[in-house]
Amino acid sequence: MTVSDDSRSALRILVSGAGVAGPVLAYWLTRHGFSVTVVERAPALRRTGGHAVDLYRPAMEISARMGVLPRIEERATGTNRMTIHREGTRRPVRVDLSKVFRAASDRHVEVMRDDLSEIYHDATSDDVEYIFGDSVTAISPDGEVRFGNTEPRRFDLVVGADGLHSTVRRLVFGEESRFGDFIGAYLGVLSLPNAAGLDGELVMHVGVGRTAGMYGARHLGDARALFLFRSERELDYHHHDVPAQKALLRNAFDGLHPDVDRWLDELDRTPAFYFDSVTQLHMDTWSRGRVTLVGDAGYCPGPAVGGSTCEAATRPR
Ligand SMILES: Cc1cc2nc3c(=O)[nH]c(=O)nc-3n(C[C@H](O)[C@H](O)[C@H](O)COP(=O)(O)OP(=O)(O)OC[C@H]3O[C@@H](n4cnc5c(N)ncnc54)[C@H](O)[C@@H]3O)c2cc1C
């Protein structure tokens, strides 16, 4: 079936999620003449917190075609060195990260996810309708979509770009437990003062089954600490119970190193905290009727497993 220019502009597409995949998809859909609305649960684009993500050649090429690569490169974190302190050893290992990135791809830039999301959003804000602070609550087979706050509307296509814990996927395809495969690890990230003045360096403390790291970025006022630990079984906590998540993190990293203790002390003051299981999605299909999934909502390899931002940025194209 071919779609004429006139019928394209008449087709209304709803994208749920203004992270990475959502705005990139919205950009290309509007370029091809479709009329696009993006609904984002957060009240505004997040300006603090978040974590660094790596873009390799495919995502950089898409970004260049969108005309936003110079802005992305301007906001590069500049992290190119890693110092690893192994538990029980004295001498740190120093790694030239640029060699590691070059081995993965001939083009690479590391950027904060929130910066990336803002840049993609800005590239679309003139042509796309954004609704912040709302979420889809029901999607009927004829395309009527209900929201928490906005009046119901009818769309020809609904796209879930609302991340690993996608609401669109739950509403249309079923509970996350049917598709999520826990791969034995948990991840925490917090924002903290860059007291050590880290610039271009990732400092890691590595123990058995647990790794903590801290990095800054040229243009960031603060730094980020990242915690990754193994767990054979899924831990029992509610995803809204932040104090319980912080307690799990403290417990997992108890006694690793005084630096790590200092980072964990910031848990009580941090303005931005993230905690999640490393869960991989396996779905037989990404589309049902007039609903489809992109990015982590459809094919998340697991937070921090690597490569998923590239997937989120390139597949919608
Ligand atoms: C600590 C950490 C480190 C990472 N490191 C890397 C890395 O080095 N390299 C890499 O490639 N990837 C990395 N990732 C993964 C990367 O962040 C994601 O793969 C990428 O952001 C996925 O983009 P997305 O647009 O699919 O989803 P997201 O970026 O998660 O965006 C989803 C959006 O949907 C919104 N949303 C959620 N629910 C609703 C709802 N009900 N209604 C409306 N909106 C909703 C969210 O607020 C969010 O804005 C890392 C992730 C974490 C957590």
Structural features:
317 residues, alpha/beta, FAD/NAD(P)-binding domain, D-Amino Acid Oxidase, Chain A, domain 2, 2 domains, 7-stranded mixed beta sheet, 6-stranded mixed beta sheet, 11 helices, 18 strands, 28% helix, globular, binds flavin-adenine dinucleotide
Structural account:
The structure is a single chain. The protein is of the alpha/beta class. It has two domains: 176 residues, FAD/NAD(P)-binding domain (3-Layer(bba) Sandwich); 98 residues, D-Amino Acid Oxidase, Chain A, domain 2 (2-Layer Sandwich). Helices cover 28% and strands 31% of the residues. A seven-stranded mixed beta sheet has the order 5-4-13-14-15-12-16. Strand 14 and strand 15 form a beta hairpin. Helix 2 runs parallel beside helix 6. The protein is globular, with a radius of gyration of 20 Å. The chain starts with a helix and ends with a helix. The model has no long low-confidence stretch (mean pLDDT 92). Flavin-adenine dinucleotide (FAD) binds next to helix 2, strand 2, strand 3, strand 12 and helix 10.
Q: Give the overall shape.
A: globular
CATH architecture of the largest domain: 3-Layer(bba) Sandwich
User: Can you tell me the CATH class of the largest domain?
Assistant: Alpha Beta
Largest sheet: 7 strands, mixed
Count of discrete alpha- or pi-helical segments spanning 4 or more residues: 11
The percent of residues in helical segments reads 25-40%
- SSE arrangement, N to C: HEHEEHHEEHEHEEEEEHEEEEHHEEEHH
Which ligands appear in the coordinates? Answer: flavin-adenine dinucleotide
CATH superfamily of the largest domain: FAD/NAD(P)-binding domain
- Estimate the mean pLDDT confidence: 92
